[in-house]
Amino acid sequence: MKELYGAGVALVTPFHTDGTVDYDALAQLIEHQIKGGADYLVSLGTTGETATLTADERKTVWQFTAEKADGRIPLVAGIGGNNTAEALHQLETFDTSGYSAILSVSPYYNKPTQEGIYQHYKAIATASPLPIILYNVPGRTSSNVSAETTVRLAREVPNIVGTKEASGSIDQFSRIMRDKPEDFLLISGDDPATLPMMALGAVGVISVVGNAFPAAVATLTRLCLEGNYQDARTIHSKLLRITELCFAEGNPTGVKAILARMGICGTRVRLPLVEASEQLVASIDRELEQVEN
Questions:
Q1: What is the pLDDT of residues 79-122, one digit of tens each?
Q2: Looking at the domain assignment, is residue 245 inside a domain?
Q3: Pick the catalytic residue: 135, 180, 229, 238?
Q4: Domain range enclosing 35
Q5: For 162, which of 152, 172, 185, 196 could close a Cys bridge (C-beta 3.0–4.6 Å)?
């Protein structure tokens, strides 16, 4: 799965002011990624506000993204959740045209045991027509996929090819790297952790800030893959504050505010999220001057 090395970007879903999906803006966002050098795109991960989209909207967004990408860049689809049967149904009805893999968030709210998480992912991988990337984000799910469970899945379920790790635990990253099969991919799920994770052996990131700055994120990951951590640190440091602002009032509220400043899409998010405050927008404006200089 070399196509999953480097800078993946978890696309936002642009909305019109009336809350409907803005496909013109989505097309512009996709072009921004391709021109900026992103290595692959994730359609309808959690950054895409997937939980607030209807089944018909999800299907249309996936198809539209594949049509606009038109084979120019690999695509990953976000399909997961805390209802295993529903996730299996989505996989069975998913049109794989243009897509290379599935990113599947671990079950949230239910707080399953590690055995429950294992059986959930085993069922999903068995049903999936495409390779599966695990997505561990305890800050959102309130449930950690342990290093032991990740490695067990990597060794015992052939269709599971990697994990997007956003646990924030260097110890967990290290144990996955130590014990995983050689070809199993560790991918950063948290922008500020990309450089240290790649120093441990991760192959890249699935980024939020990359929506706005695909070239910077792509360059950072390329430098890390080349072992040039000195130059990568310069980009890492430059992106730290703007990344912090991206998440200050929830994701993707912050990055949509940045994209609006760039003329790529509007600021509209769906409830229960709300648009960025005036204070956050002012902070973003100040920081954009630093990032762009």
A1: 999 999 999 999 999 999 999 999 999 999 999 999 999 999 99
A2: no
A3: 135
A4: 2-232
A5: 185
